[in-house]
Design brief:
five-stranded parallel sheet, alpha/beta, 5 strands
Amino acid sequence: TECGSFGIHLNHPRLMAATRAEVAAMQAQGGRVSAACHDAATLARAEALGVDAVLISPVLPTASHPGAPVLGWAGFADLARRTALPVFGLGGLAPSDLPTLRAQGGYGVAGIGAFFEPDFLQQPVS
């Protein structure tokens, strides 16, 4: 909360294990909950839990998951159209992809590598 934010992101295992009551408890404390979605089933699960937003990924090839299958813009658009939740694209995206993402039904771009200098990403986590 040092930067004025409070929330949690549910990766795939956490999304599948979470309960509606846990999500509601976080939200009741003023927190926001987002979830990682890779297909229609995980998107439906996120909606059933009542999360505040979803991150659909991977849209494009990414260095953090080399060789992983990607959705591409068509796959992203298909999933984005299935929900009324704010949708963020993740995976191989940069701020310059925002116009394309919005044209495909997304709200914003999420990422790590495109937003930090390479030397920052090599810093050890303490």
